[in-house]
Input
Amino acid sequence: MTIDALEGVLLIPALSAGLLAALPGYRLTSRLNMLAAFLTFLTAASLFVVEPESGRYLLVDDLNKVFIVLTAFVAFTTSGFSASYIGHEIETGRLKPNHVRFYHAMYQVLMFAMNLALTANNIGLMWVAIELATLTTVLMVGIYRTHEALEAAWKYFILGSIGIALALFGTILVYMAARPVIGEGPDAMVWTILMTKAASFDPDLLNVAFVFLLLGYGTKVGLAPLHAWLPDAHAEGPTPISAVLSGLLLNVALYALLRFKMLLALNPVAIAPGPLMVTMGLISAVFAAFMLYRRRDIKRMFAYSSIEHMGIIVFAFGMGGPLANFAGLLHMTMHSLTKSAIFFAVGHIAQIKGTQKIADIGGLTISHPVLGWGLVAGVVAIAGLPPMGIFMSEFLVVSSTFARAPWLVLILVIAILVALGGLFIKLNTIAFGEPRGSNAPAQASYVPMFAHLAIVFAAGIYMPPALVTGFQNVARLLG
Amino acid sequence: MQGITFDIAHMLAGSLVLVSFIQLYQQRLSALLNIFALHAFVLALSVAWQAYVQDAPHLYITAIIALVFKAIVIPVALRRIVIRLGIHREIENVFGVGLAMLLGICLVALSMVVMLRVTSGADPLAREDLAFALSVVLLGMLMMVTRRNAVSQVVGFMSLENGLVLAATGAKGMPLVVEISIAFSVLIAFIVIGIFLFRIRERFDTVDMQAMDRFRGEQR
Output
């Protein structure tokens, strides 16, 4: 039996999770964790070279290839950051060696769950994978066992479960809609079969199903007003997990939503899912932009920024059309890279200063120039200033949709500008002025952060034609 | 024959909604756990009946899981936790009982209106089942938001899952993968919750969520 790349991206994390759970010693396991993530990334990248056949259970097409490779890449760089972060946590005694063993195993389980959700060719299997990813992250968020961490994990668990439950109800309704056409049994849950027959499904059932799916998976995407778990989970968990949550898990939930949107688009009578997504996207972007001003916790602030950007991305995909989809996809990629880079910087900053309170952090560009300027570059990128890649993707979102809905785009632009203001006011306190707080030397690994920022910078200046064609193909697929 | 099979399925699904209502107004945790066991028992009966009607033997497995795991193991385990924590007498609602019941009635009406209207094409058995299932799901959610106690939130979550199982079994021929996964997820969820409850106990000396709200990250 040969194993193709599609099975590889599932098997490598699954096997290494078992291995990491058994091995003691954080130095060894954190390196093994990196190695496993690197192998997963190589396997994922090979999807572009040799495309395996989609089977009954696993599926590969242009859409999920992009998601899988992005997931594997950010997971790999995050594992690098995680190694130095965890080392520091062990030294300060915030984490015990036993917890670290658990942490590394869970990291790989999370990779497995996300890859499974992205490759599943079955709406039920996809749901199971997202549920597994949720439960894993709940455990990781609560790992410090402080009051705040426990409350955050509990809130995340309760809201995440409600979202997941709604998504399951929607999944059942999709099956009910498909059953009269495809017939009973597993076939009526297979993506590739659903897509060919979607035109003759019962439109009313599909409509209701999509509402449930939007609310359910939308909770996981972090769309307002279902976002309440997101800032807590980001702020209280270990920072590598914040990076993975923001950069990857939100994308995975978004991927599920996009698949169902494609399904609905194939049915001529069903409601257009676009306007629903546009509304929720706009609400999230505006709400989160204003919330940025009141933040006192640095990780919480960037969590709200994630809500804002997910809002922009959902807005772009909701508007639809090849150009807006292209812009949404690019924005998603850029946001994943930039936000995880920011969390890498923030993780080290919080470790040096021993606090996450913005008021207690100051003058980083003087006391820790590399970290400080890295953070400044990250915030410049995330706020959407040229020449970084997010500027280009936001520009594309706005320009591709302006002709169709000028008033909506105006609201979006205001949200982006408000967010920019909020971010820079806080950045000013954090990065400039008199240094405040501890001045301990940084024991940081800068490579992952600057690698991400370099890619974002490069994408803002020059996009390779191969990448553009690839994204265009996906955008066309999304309709 | 069609008439009586339909009536029994209808009665069992309806009873599940009724038991959800009974859960809503339970004042004490031990009573709530009893009612939850009843809820799971009715679910097991309903699923078994569906297995018989649809001639789908694999559904019996789901029924057995519901009976053994949800109606017996979980209530017993939760009762132990509750007694160990010494909170088996307390429960507090955020709203009064009357308001909670009224909201519950509205939710059931809503789910009837929505589900019966959109499923006009489907067979009557599946329609009714889906409408009842959505009611149970919504009532479970209502319970989760009206209760402050961690244990009763967990019970609310599990009755919500019961509603999902009812929906999944009502959808004829839905693959086994999903049912097992539901049971499995409840198992995982329970482990998670169990761990959490003990950790919360370690830290707070209470499982009252209102006490936890004080520890919000930003209010200090």
Summary: Chain A has a mean pLDDT of 89.
